[in-house]
Specification:
The protein has 458 residues and is mainly α. Helices cover 75% and strands 0% of the residues. It has 18 helices and no strands. It binds phenylalanine (PHE). The site of phenylalanine has 14 residues, from helix 1, helix 2, helix 10 and helix 14. Phenylalanine binds next to helix 1, helix 2, helix 10 and helix 14.
Amino acid sequence: MQNDNQNREGFSSGLAVFFATLGSAVGLGNIWKFPYLTGEFGGAAFLFVYILCVAFVGVPLMISEFYIGRKTRLNAVGSFEKLAPGKPWKVIGYAGVIAAYLIMFFYSCVAGWVYSYIFKAIRGDFIGITPETAQAQFGTTLSSPWQPIMWQIIFLLVVGTVILLGVRKGIERVTKTLMPLLFILIVICDIRALTLPGAKEGLTFLFNPDFTQIGPLAILTALGLAFFKLSIGMGTMITYSSYFTHDNNMINTATRVALSDLLVSILAGIAIFPALFSFGIEPTAGPGLLFMAIPLVFAQMPFGNLLLIAFLTLTGIAATTASISIIETTTLFFTEQRKVSRKIAVIINLTVIAVIGSLATLSADKTGVLGNVKIFGKTFFDLFDFTSSNILLPLGGLFIAIFIGYVIKKDDFVNELTNDGLLKSEGIVTAILFILRFVTPVLVIVIFLNSLGIINFN
Ligand code: PHE
């Protein structure tokens, strides 16, 4: 009933739409990447630039992808073929599928670390931990080559299982129950962090901006993070919105998802930064930041180990639900464009990700087997991350903005987003279209050129 394409599954309600979309947005991006990038690029000023990117680039593009997906009820490539037959716009979809793989190569590595930390916490490895042993623990996690790869594969098997269960039984059920729980646990973590001796310094770092820290790379990174965080620029939101209900208010959904996602990131920052200052860990510690800080936040508090297990488990779940949306993007591409079964599509995806993803895992640390192998001056891990977040997603977003702004008919865009006039939001849709035509593309192009050194504000 919900879908135009027969035999196609879809989400059952507005609430399911919201939680599934939020489940894609909220993930390691909030709990792992946002804090470490904010730490690396100087704190509050970076947060400020990031928020601007979310508002003027992220939300309008999310709405654009919703339009494309729900209108066509097709995957990332098929949707462009349907809207612009015979034209090259579907290249955006192909680039998205490639970006999805690149992200999964390193994402599954970090998610594997989270899963291994859950196991270690259950075993009691973090009881009585100190700042020195916390750093050492992270080091040993990375130094053995096989263990992290084993955890990475376990993670991929979990993701594959949920995808095989399908849209409603898998994606919908998992996201609806677990997202609210994650939120509650982060708040508990915050309360603890705010009572640490370094709390004030941590909060100043996070909220008191110093704009001298902001250079072209920081701005490009904030833009890339906005894309990565909101799962846009690569067709994931096209894929999910192809399962949306007809009566969903998509502008509302996009705004609520973006705000909730931002809230989770900031709450994660409040949990982590006070701990860093309190325990003397450098905020610029990089990808290991979360793994060194969080066990310390929970150490020595009542029921600390139990709460740590719960927090890590929910982080693992957030990573799982986000990955489900990434792999769903490539899976739907294979089932609809290449007509293979869902099972075969999942098997192909997981195999490719496990094999190439292990390169990311082996290169994630200087001491790793591939730790010193550099391509274009970057390790495999960094290369997969940089190419997807900072290049492919912003480029995808740029072309989606141009596509909606200049190729799609305005009436068509307005009709779909107002649910054929049922919602009285035509004015807002016109404003969004204005942003998509004149603001989003200009911002993305300027940030790109600036980061390449072609134009320079500094
Ligand atoms: N938004 C997810 C996160 O923050 C990652 C993601 C990127 C998911 C791109 C889907 C598409 O963890």
